[in-house]
């Protein structure tokens, strides 16, 4: 018990409730399959070898390219053929540089 300074009724100390744990809602998006993860890793490594810096790599993978008819990262993740197409495009650009 604590006695207030103004001389009123003493206050009874109440036990504190523990803080409730909050959890994030479960994601509704599907996790990538092992093949998709492998292809993503491969295209990232290829882009990194070509550009050598994070900025250009991110820009390349997330920008739509007319020659590839889409975003390189999405094309590469979809199938092995898409991965080969993006890697061939990067290789062709590496030879010209």
Q: What is the arithmetic mean of pLDDT? A: 85
Proportion in helices: 40-55%
N- to C-terminal separation? 79 Å
| Shape descriptor | elongated
Major beta sheet summary: none
H/E topology pattern: HHHH
Structural class category: mainly alpha
Radius of gyration: 28 Å
Textual characterization of the structure:
The chain is mostly helical and 97 residues long. The chain has a domain at 46-96. 53% of the residues lie in helices and 0% in strands. The chain contains four helices and no strands. It has helices spanning 34-51, 54-62, 72-78, 80-96. It starts with 33 loop residues before the first helix and ends with a helix.
Q: What layout of secondary structure does this protein have?
A:
Blueprint: H1 34-51, H2 54-62, H3 72-78, H4 80-96
Helix pairs in contact: 1-2, 1-3, 1-4, 3-4
Please outline what is shown here:
The protein has helices spanning 34-51, 54-62, 72-78, 80-96.
Keywords, separated by commas or semicolons:
single chain, mainly alpha, 0% strand
């Amino acid at each position: 018990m604590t006695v207030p300074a103004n001389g009123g009724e003493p206050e009874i100390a109440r036990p504190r409730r523990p803080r409730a744990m909050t959890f994030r809602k479960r994601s509704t998006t599907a996790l990538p399959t092992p093949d998709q993860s492998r292809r993503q890793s491969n295209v990232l490594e290829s882009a990194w070898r070509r550009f050598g810096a994070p900025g250009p790599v991110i820009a390349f993978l997330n920008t739509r390219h007319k020659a590839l008819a889409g975003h390189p990262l999405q094309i590469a993740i979809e199938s092995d053929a898409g991965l080969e197409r993006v890697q061939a495009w990067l290789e062709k650009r590496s030879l010209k540089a």
